């Protein structure tokens, strides 16, 4: 399976194909996070508590973490474009089921299926984008394809909440299903077909895990995601402790907009300076957590730190996936699924750990998050050195 474009291919990015991939990622991200903004009306309509309705987000992340590796391995031989179309069609079906089901159990099941679809999608899209361009342009191609992630996080919850208030929470899922229908045509029209892995060339999971640098990278991903989600999940209580609960929506908006800028910045720098990008993402996030712990009662510090944190976070997932591909070479799909599983497992772990810290020593929350960012700072050098040797 060739992971880079052949020599002589035009260096201009294939923007129509990359934007179609980005829209697919946006749809997956939107499907994951949008229930957070409509929990109250959804819980009332489905006859469950808000905490129970919150599991619509939790099971999605956990399913993505648990299924991305085995499902990516199972579908490795499927032609990439056919698999892409099947995954987008999966969003049509699952979102429509959520929109019309009167039973919470069926809604929860549909969310489980959506989580599984997303795990395969993110593994597939990262490698797909990087195979469409020469290796020296792969970082930029990946940044474009994964732009749907920060846009989804920035717009998903507020847009879903606003639409739910206007027309009802079920119509939010109808709209997401409707987005997927023209996306099917778009992918079919502009995304080039690529072969899957031939059966005799597929590496086992154990072989992939022995790839030099991959296990330190996965540890880096887990530490970064733990630190981020431990703090982000409980940002509301953090703002309340500083006396600025009313500024939470402003802080989240600034964070979301900055993630888009961070992704663009990483796309410009990643191909030439992967180690610096990884170090800057972790170091900036750690400094922001410390600033919020020390001076968060000052409005300027609060909002500036939230913005810079978003800038650091915006490019981090793309950086991890680009370095994964550089390390793994021809086994990139399987390696990407391990990165996705590590990230999403840490999403759930961060929320759990953050809740424990918040209940016992709430003032320590930003310091614990900052400490977790020390691991990426220590591991970035060895990981990128392995990536350079692999390249």
Could you characterize the architecture of this molecule?
Pfam families: MFS_1. It is found in: Cell membrane. InterPro entries: MFS, MFS_dom, MFS_Efflux_Transporters, MFS_trans_sf. The chain folds into two domains: 15-200, Up-down Bundle (Growth Hormone, Chain: A); 203-390, MFS general substrate transporter like domains (Growth Hormone, Chain: A, Up-down Bundle), CATH 1.20.1250.20. The two termini are 16 Å apart. The protein is mostly helical and 391 residues long. Mean pLDDT is 82; it is low at 1-10. 79% of the residues lie in helices and 0% in strands. It is globular. It contains 18 helices and no strands. Helix 4 crosses helix 6, helix 11 runs antiparallel to helix 18 (374-390) and helix 15 packs parallel to helix 18.
């Amino acid at each position: 399976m060739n992971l880079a474009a052949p020599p002589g291919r035009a260096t201009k990015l294939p923007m129509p194909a990359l934007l179609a991939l980005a829209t697919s990622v946006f749809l997956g991200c939107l499907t994951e996070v949008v229930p957070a903004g409509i929990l109250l009306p959804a819980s009332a309509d489905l006859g469950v508590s808000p905490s129970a309705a919150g599991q619509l987000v939790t099971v999605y992340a956990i399913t993505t973490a648990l299924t991305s590796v085995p499902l990516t391995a199972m579908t490795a031989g499927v032609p990439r474009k056919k698999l892409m179309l099947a995954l987008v069609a999966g969003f049509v079906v699952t979102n429509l089921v959520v929109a019309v089901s009167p039973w919470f159990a069926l809604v929860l099941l549909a969310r489980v299926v959506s989580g599984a679809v997303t795990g395969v999608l993110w593994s597939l899209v990262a490698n797909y984008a990087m195979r469409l361009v020469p290796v020296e342009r792969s970082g930029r191609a990946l940044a474009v394809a994964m732009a749907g992630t920060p846009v989804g996080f920035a717009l998903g919850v507020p847009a879903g909440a606003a639409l739910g208030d206007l027309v009802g929470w079920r119509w939010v899922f109808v709209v997401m299903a409707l987005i997927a229908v023209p996306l099917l045509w778009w992918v079919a029209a502009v995304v080039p077909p690529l072969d899957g892995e031939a059966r005799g060339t597929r590496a086992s999971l154990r072989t992939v895990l022995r790839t030099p640098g991959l296990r330190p990278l996965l540890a880096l991903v887990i530490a970064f995601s733990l630190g981020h989600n431990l703090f982000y999940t409980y940002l509301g209580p953090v703002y309340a402790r500083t006396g600025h609960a009313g500024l939470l929506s402003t802080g989240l908006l600034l964070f979301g907009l900055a993630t888009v800028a961070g992704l663009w910045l990483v796309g410009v720098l990643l191909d030439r300076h992967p180690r610096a990008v990884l170090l800057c993402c972790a170091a900036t996030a750690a400094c922001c957590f410390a600033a919020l712990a020390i001076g968060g009662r000052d409005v300027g510090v609060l909002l500036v730190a939230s913005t810079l944190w978003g800038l650091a976070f915006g490019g981090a997932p793309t950086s991890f996936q680009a370095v994964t591909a550089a390390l793994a070479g021809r086994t990139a799909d399987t390696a990407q699924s391990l990165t996705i599983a590590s990230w999403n497992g840490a999403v759930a772990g961060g929320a759990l750990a953050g809740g424990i810290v918040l209940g016992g020593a709430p003032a320590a929350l930003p310091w614990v998050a900052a400490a977790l960012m020390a691991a990426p700072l220590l591991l970035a050098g060895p990981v990128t050195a392995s990536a350079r040797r692999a390249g």
